[in-house]
Structure formats: structure tokens, C-alpha cells
């Protein structure tokens, strides 16, 4: 019994050390670590057969590991693209995290991750000397839509910009003032440092600050959606990608223009912005292949199905 | 495995234990140093006063490196204090009553069912409490009691109360069990009823333990982030009453820590809040030690 315990303890310690080694290798950026970790973690005879097969199969394809972090608005797209990319390039491992644009930019500037996803340009969140090495890839365009509880959106299909500003700055407090039902306006917003909020404030509210002292704040767009759907008289905003396959809330047009992918393409709908994937220095190897894939025409239709705009199809630029 | 018996018998275990012990001390120390290093930036790098941070309610830090925003965190501080105090008011009577029930009134049931049941509460992850609060408490306050948004100080306090109830109960129950048997028997011998000896003898004797339990509960409530953030509404305004939403320190940190520019005024202001939380919990621990020590002197 005691002997068994000892063996178990040694085995556990071994596993622990191995996993530590594996982890540290993954985060370090040398190209050949991927093969090194597989050698360590698989049993000898197993890796031998793999190695003998590997050169033939991977001659033309891409190998390596990619790590990414940042914007939660871009994550669903990045994750979907990663799954599709891995289907054709099985030797690439991609690890993606949310955590916010600020965090993503910080990590890519420090070299902790290969790709930093961001809703805003790096210069806005990093000091100049940190941002200067980063290379921007505008992978897609994201459209933000005002959304409201169903009982409001059934009557109010569109608001003028002044009305929208009035509502979000807390001046308009009842929906009947803008042609809606007799219900109090409930503002549901995102945190001040959110990229979604920054875009919405800039292009839908002409830079007027939202009334933070009268709004319910939610950490992520999913929760916001749920809040707006369950709260009478609620209004908020999310990216169109959150409204694919979701009809629990209604969208509201701005100055008569519906928030749709088409209206963003033709330049009539104003609330949109680029989503960025940043790399430290020019993207290379696996990361480059992945970003190229995300921006490729092949992936474009899938991108639109997920509710994002393809950057190359924009008729207007910023 | 080791030939050297003496080494294995004495020094191996001792070394491991000592290393682990020192590691914890060093870790706590470094977390403290790190928080001071990061959090003091608001006052040194961006030149705000401590008074502004603690007592001003104007919160508008600039999300850049030039600064010049406002860092008044009074709303968050007040939100934390008010929800925790209310939670304590709700939880403490229940905790003391439960502790008395499971130690004095029905010790058999207490030991076999009640205590394990209370201990299960401790193991439930906070996100579960928060989620239950969000799906049951918030709609009930909004739709049944017709009070505003449902997201409120009350909802946050109830969730917190449920979370700290087990910690307080266990500490208080331990304290009651440590009351010397002679005291209780003496009181019975003098002709007091069970209830008389409970509130005249046992509670006063176990006072130190009760206070310790309450403060540990308070410390836990102060640091809880997730569950509170889900039901408090995060509106940056002082609550008008217990049915209105507000925000607190932990919710403010979690919602903006990922988005704020690293090292910018906003980010540093959040670190200052983290430092404040650390200082508050240190304070609580000191109070607990102070109470325990003065309790020992009296006994």
C-alpha cells in the first residue's frame, strides 16, 4: 500500500513537471518547440511512428502554434476561422482568449501572444514606443446596432440621431416622447473602456458621453442582450454578430437607415469600425497563414454569415 | 527509498513544510508590494489626492497616459460598504440562530445533518449564486415587488448574505462548542432553563467567536466580485434606496480591467481600488486578531 502511494506520488510529480515544461514551451516563441513538446508528451514508440509519417504529409502544409488574445467582439469570428483553418492545416495549434482589447494589445506588444485582437487602433491603448512595432491587419468591419426591448421596437422602428443622443445622455426618459409606448427608458450599456461602447459613442452619439449615472452596465454583449430582452423599455447596443439567430430583441434604425451589413457596405449606416489583428513585426509563418485565411475571399461568405462585414467589400473607408 | 533513515524521518518533511510556509509568506508579501507599486500610481504618477479618490464621486479617469481625468471612487466604496453591511444584517441573526440550534438545541441533528448541509453552501461557486440571483431574485424584485430594475442593493445583499451565512455559522458554532461545560452545568445547577443559559451564559462567553465569525463574513463579502456584479446593476450613482442599482469596487475592477490601456490612468485607478480592497481585508484580519487576543485576556 505504502509503496503504491509512493509510486503514485512520483508519477504525479512527473506529470506536473511535464505539463510545466509543455506550458513554458508553448508560450516561448521558437518555431521548433511544437515538435519538441510532442516528443516529450507522447510515449517513445508512438512519436517514432509519427515522425516517420510526418515529413511526407506536412511537406507543403503549415506547422506551428498561434496564440491570440483580446477583443471579445472579434473572438467568435477568430475562433470560427481557427476551427476552419485547422481543418485544412491539422498541424497548426491555435489558442485564442478574450480578455478585452486593452489586454490583447498589451500581450502582443509584450510578445506574450502572437496575435492581439482589438476593436480600436493600438495607439489608443498603448504608449507610443510600445505601439510602434505592431503591424495592423484590418481583418473585418463590425457594425454596431441599437437594440431595444420588443415592446419598444415594435413601435419605434427608427430614431433620428438627436433622439438617440437624447435617450443615451439621459435627457429623454420616456419612450412616448419619441413615438413609443408610455414606458420609462432603461439604458443598458457597456463599460467605459469597452471597444463596442467607444464605437457607438463616436459614430451614433457624435461623441456625446452616455449617462453612466442612469444606466445599467453589463460586462459583455451576451448579458446585455439578455438584459434588454427581459427589461421593459430597455435600449442598448451590440454588434450585428450577436443578432444572428437571435430575435429576442429588435433593432432600431438611425435616421431611417436599418443597421444591416448591406447598409454598412454602401456607406449609409454610420456606426461601424474596423476589427484589428495586430502582430509584433510583420506576421510570419503560421500566424501569417491564419490571418491571410481570415482575410481571404473563401472565408468572406462565412464571415458575413457570422454577422461581420468583409473589409474589402466596403465602398467607404475611414 | 532513502537509505538515510534519519534524513527521511526528520529533515525531509521538515524542509518541505518550511519551504511551503515561507513560500506563502513571501507570496503574500509580494502581492502586497505589487499592489502598492501599481496602485500608488494614481497619486504619484497622475497626481491625484487620496481625499479625491476616497471621497469624491466624480469618476472619469482618462483611458490614456497623459491623465487629467477624475478618479473619485466614493460611489464604488459606498456601494461595497452598503451591500456588505446589509448582507451582514441579514445573515448574522440566521447564523447565530443556526449555530445555537445545531450545538445546543439539537446537537445530534446538528452534527449529522445541519452542519454538513451548511458546509455544502461554502463549496457552491459564486457564479452559481450570482446566476440564481439573476434569474430568480432580480425578476422577483422587479415584477412582484415592482421596484425599478430588479438589479439593486437588496438583490446584491441577499446574494451576499447567502454566501457569508455558512462562514459565520461555522465559526460561531465552533465558539459555542468551546464554551466550557462547567459554565453550562453551573448555570443549570443554579436553576436556569436551557434558554436562559443560552442567552445569559453561552452567548456572552462565546462573544469573541461570534465577532470573529462576523468579521470573517464581512471580509468575504467585501472581496466577492462575480456574484455581486451580476445582480447589482452597475449603475454609477449612489443608491437612492435599497431597491436602486449601484456599483461596487470589485464590479468596477472586473468590468474595466480588460479594456483599459495598460499603465494608463484608468488602469492605474483600478489598481488603486485593488489596493484599497487589499488594505481593507488586512484591516479586517488585524481586527480579528485584536478581538481574539483581547478575548483570551478576559477568559
What secondary-structure arrangement, pairings included, does this model have?
The complex is a heterodimer of chains A (318) and B (299).
Chain A: H1 2-27, H2 33-41, H3 44-58, E1 64-70, H4 75-88, E2 92-97, H5 101-110, E3 115-118, H6 122-125, H7 128-131, E4 134-148, H8 150-153, E5 158-159, H9 161-168, E6 186-189, H10 195-203, E7 215-217, H11 221-230, E8 234-239, E9 250-251, E10 253-254, H12 261-265, E11 272-280, H13 285-294, H14 297-305, E12 309-310
Parallel strand pairs in A: 1-2, 1-3, 5-10, 6-7, 6-8
Antiparallel strand pairs in A: 3-11, 4-8, 4-9, 4-11, 4-12
Chain B: H1 5-39, H2 41-44, H3 50-55, E1 59-60, E2 70-71, H4 74-105, H5 107-123, H6 126-144, H7 153-177, H8 181-189, H9 194-205, H10 207-223, H11 226-232, H12 249-256, H13 265-298
Antiparallel strand pairs in B: 1-2
Query: Which sheet architecture does the biggest sheet of chain B show?
Result: 2 strands, antiparallel
Helix- and strand-based class of chain A? alpha/beta
CATH class designation of the largest domain in chain A: Alpha Beta
Tell me the number of helical segments of chain B per DSSP (H or I, 4 or more residues long): 13
Alpha-carbon distance between the two ends of chain A? 71 Å
The CATH topology of the largest domain in chain B comes to MetI-like fold
Percent of residues in helices of chain A: 40-55%
Q: What's the average pLDDT of chain B?
A: 90
Q: Helix- and strand-based class of chain B? A: mainly alpha
The best one-word shape of chain B is globular
Subunit structure (chain A): The complex is composed of two ATP-binding proteins (PstB), two transmembrane proteins (PstC and PstA) and a solute-binding protein (PstS).
Organism (chain A): Anaeromicropila herbilytica
Region (Disordered) (chain A): 26-65
GO molecular function (chain A): phosphate ion binding
Amino acid at each position: 500500500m505504502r509503496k503504491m502511494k509512493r509510486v503514485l506520488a512520483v508519477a504525479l510529480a512527473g506529470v506536473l513537471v511535464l505539463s510545466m515544461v509543455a506550458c513554458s514551451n508553448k508560450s516561448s516563441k521558437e518555431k521548433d518547440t511544437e515538435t519538441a513538446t510532442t516528443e516529450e508528451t507522447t510515449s517513445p514508440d508512438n512519436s517514432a511512428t509519427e515522425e516517420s509519417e510526418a515529413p511526407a504529409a506536412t511537406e507543403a502544409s503549415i506547422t506551428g502554434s498561434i496564440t491570440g488574445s483580446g477583443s471579445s467582439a472579434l473572438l467568435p469570428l477568430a475562433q470560427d476561422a481557427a476551427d476552419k483553418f485547422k481543418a485544412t492545416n491539422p498541424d497548426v495549434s491555435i489558442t485564442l482568449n478574450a480578455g478585452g482589447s486593452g489586454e490583447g494589445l498589451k500581450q502582443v506588444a509584450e510578445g506574450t501572444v502572437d496575435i492581439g485582437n482589438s476593436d480600436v487602433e493600438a495607439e489608443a491603448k498603448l504608449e507610443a514606443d510600445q505601439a510602434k512595432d505592431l503591424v495592423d491587419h484590418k481583418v473585418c468591419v463590425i457594425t454596431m446596432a441599437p437594440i431595444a426591448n420588443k415592446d419598444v421596437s415594435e413601435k419605434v422602428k427608427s430614431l433620428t440621431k438627436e433622439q438617440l443622443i437624447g435617450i443615451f445622455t439621459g435627457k429623454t426618459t420616456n419612450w412616448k416622447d419619441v413615438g413609443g409606448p408610455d414606458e420609462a427608458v432603461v439604458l443598458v450599456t457597456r463599460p467605459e473602456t469597452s471597444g463596442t461602447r467607444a464605437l457607438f459613442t463616436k459614430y451614433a452619439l457624435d461623441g456625446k458621453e452616455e449617462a453612466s449615472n442612469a444606466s445599467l452596465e453589463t460586462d459583455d454583449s451576451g448579458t446585455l442582450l439578455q438584459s434588454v430582452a427581459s427589461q421593459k423599455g430597455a435600449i442598448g447596443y451590440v454588434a450585428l454578430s450577436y443578432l444572428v439567430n437571435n430575435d429576442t430583441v429588435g433593432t432600431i434604425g438611425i435616421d431611417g437607415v436599418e443597421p444591416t451589413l448591406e447598409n454598412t457596405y454602401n456607406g449609409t449606416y454610420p456606426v461601424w469600425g474596423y476589427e484589428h489583428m495586430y502582430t509584433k513585426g510583420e506576421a510570419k509563418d503560421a500566424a501569417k497563414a491564419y490571418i491571410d485565411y481570415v482575410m481571404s475571399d473563401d472565408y468572406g461568405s462565412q464571415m458575413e454569415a457570422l454577422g461581420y462585414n468583409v473589409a474589402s467589400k466596403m465602398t467607404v473607408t475611414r | 527509498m532513502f537509505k538515510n533513515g534519519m534524513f527521511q524521518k526528520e529533515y525531509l518533511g521538515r524542509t518541505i513544510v518550511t519551504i511551503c510556509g515561507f513560500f506563502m509568506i513571501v507570496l503574500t508579501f509580494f502581492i502586497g508590494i505589487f499592489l502598492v507599486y501599481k496602485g500608488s500610481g494614481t497619486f504619484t504618477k497622475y497626481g491625484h489626492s487620496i481625499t479625491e479618490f476616497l471621497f469624491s464621486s466624480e469618476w472619469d479617469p482618462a483611458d490614456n497616459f497623459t491623465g487629467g481625468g477624475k478618479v473619485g471612487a466614493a460611489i464604488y466604496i459606498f456601494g461595497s460598504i452598503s451591500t456588505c453591511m446589509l448582507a451582514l444584517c441579514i445573515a448574522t441573526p440566521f447564523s447565530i440562530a443556526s449555530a445555537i440550534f445545531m450545538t445546543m438545541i439539537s446537537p445530534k441533528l446538528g452534527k449529522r445533518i445541519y452542519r454538513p448541509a451548511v458546509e455544502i453552501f461554502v463549496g457552491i461557486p459564486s457564479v452559481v449564486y450570482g446566476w440564481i440571483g439573476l434569474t430568480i431574485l432580480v425578476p422577483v424584485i422587479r415584477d412582484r415587488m415592482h421596484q425599478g430594475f430588479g438589479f439593486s442593493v437588496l438583490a446584491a445583499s441577499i446574494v451576499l448574505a447567502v454566501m457569508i451565512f455558512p462562514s459565520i455559522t461555522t465559526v460561531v458554532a465552533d465558539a459555542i462548542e468551546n464554551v466550557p461545560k462547567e459554565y453550562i452545568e453551573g448555570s443549570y445547577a443554579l436553576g436556569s432553563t436551557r434558554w436562559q443559559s443560552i442567552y445569559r451564559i453561552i452567548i456572552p462567553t462565546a462573544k469573541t467567536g461570534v465577532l470573529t465569525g462576523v468579521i470573517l463574513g464581512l471580509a468575504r463579502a467585501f472581496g466577492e466580485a462575480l456574484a455581486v456584479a451580476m445582480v447589482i446593476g452597475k449603475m454609477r450613482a449612489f443608491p437612492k434606496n435599497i431597491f436602486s442599482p449601484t456599483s461596487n469596487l470589485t464590479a468596477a475592477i472586473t468590468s474595466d480591467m480588460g479594456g483599459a490601456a495598460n499603465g494608463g490612468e484608468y488602469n492605474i485607478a483600478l489598481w488603486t481600488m485593488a489596493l484599497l480592497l487589499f488594505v481593507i481585508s488586512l484591516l479586517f484580519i488585524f481586527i480579528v486578531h485584536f478581538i481574539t487576543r483581547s478575548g483570551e485576556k478576559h477568559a
